[in-house]
Amino acid sequence: MNLTWDLESLYSSFQSEKYQKDYKHAAELADELGARAKFHLHTQEKAAILTEDFLRQYNAFRSVYLCLFSYAELVFSIDNGKTEAANQMDVLEEMAAGSEEALASFSKWLASMSGEELDTIIGSGEYVSQHAFYLRQLQQSRYLLSEEAEAVIARMQLTGAKAWERLYMKMQSTLRVEVEMKGAAHKLSLTELRNLVYDHDFQVRQAAYEAEAKACRSVAEQSAACLNAVCGEAIGIYELRGYKSPLHKVLETSRMDRETLEAMLQAIKESLPAFHQYYLHKAKLLGHAGPLPFHDIFAPVGEESSVKISYPEAQELIVAGFNSFSTELGAFARKVFISRWIDAESRAGKGNFGMCIDIAPIQESRIITSFTGSYMDVGILAHEIGHAYHSSCLAGKTMVNIDYPIPIAETASIFCEGLINQELLLSASEGEVLPILERSLSDAGYYIVDFYARYLFESQLYEHRKSGSLTVEELNSLMQDAMSAAYGSSIDPDSIHSYQWVSKAGYYMTGNEFLNFPYSFGLLFSKGLFAQYKKREGGFAEQFQAFLAASSTTMVADAGQLMGIDVRSPEFWRDALALIGEDIQRFVGHSEK
User: Fold this and answer.
1) Are 220 and 172 in contact (CB under 8 A)?
2) How many whole angstroms from its chain centre is CA 492?
3) Model pTM greater than 0.85?
4) Strand-pair partners of 185
5) What domains can you pick out in the chain, each with its CATH number?
């Protein structure tokens, strides 16, 4: 079975006639959008016609642009040395900046109307009415400056925060550090070092962790400059636009309210002792007399399995597991494998991570992972296919109607991973149950405890950055405080290196602040849904599909209501966390047999 993907439905190369033709067409559409915004959006006469024309033009541009950018991103993702792909991404982002200026003008034009006037426009025809949610979101966006100011920001960010972000990403991707393991010297990247946290050899894990700390320390000053620049610009721009804080902006764009966030955070804080019990028990299993050293936070527990799962076996296991939920989901998974939407081959020059890129214009997705035959690899495949399935549920929608908020983004993926973990536990031998269960808890701790620490760190980062740039020492102090608050006494405090803010790329991504709590939301929301699925007699699969289809055109709280969930209630989050608590007790009990 071929473990590489097929990109021919997109393009054969950057030089292909199809790519060049689409690039030219996208540039023309972007120019036309700019002209339309400049010359036509100054009157409310024929407002319905102007609205439909702009929507059609913008959707047309996004349809072509997403194909072009997805191709460049896919080529780059499997070989970071592809400078042509990186250059194409830069050029395409420049093109997109022009289209975003036009969209900002369109948004300001809508904001000048009353709600009744917009209702009239929405009722003027079928095409416009399909975009009712999107248009109301644009009109209600009070956080836009004048067209001229937004244009200036979009242009200056290319050489401002985005330039600092690119510098950081390049620094991270080229950083190498020497480390001695098993009597041999190695020069490894940060990605390669992080992958060793799952190694069965204690000395390898410790050496890799210490090397990572050394590497982070070596670029701490440069990273601090990048972080201060990105965060400082975010604070300034969001304040000008009228947001109370970067967190306020993230909640708005996530279609989530503060009440929901506070309910979830309250439940997470209450659940920390259960996770601390898990980490302390893991320390005991690994032979530590006291708290768990941080370099062993992801250490595997139990004997290394000699059983390897072949790629065809992984396919059949996933299809069977998905079929147990719904035949439609199973058929979709089989289609993903047969149509070669996955690049699963492990090879040099390719990142060792899982990622799904949705290509909505052609109603396809592409998945990148490195399959080595472990149980963990099967779960990663199921997770990424879940992302692709979510996208497939949005088929037929226009380009502006396919964007779902980050808190909902992990719902289908984690749910699908849960289906397969259930299958793995049922089929695993007695000796294999503990490693699979521990891996699930390790992931849960990562998304709940570690991301809670990241949320605390980022909250304090923005609060302190308002008073000026932070030194390396100040950033280290904030990180230590956040880690201590999240992990408590379950982790050896002397084993936590303070430079972890250097290696977390999410802090440096312009316009993507607080890439932490939305993922905690996704995990817990999926856990709650999975509990419902296990209790229900039938009809859940159809309701779940309808929920995914509606997720791009609804608020988070309203999406929850579609599944009978009140996300503003701490009780829902407590119930979801209780499921993880039950797994912790099962883990403790199983390991003591």
Assistant:
1) no
2) 29
3) yes
4) 180
5) 17-155 (1.20.140.70)
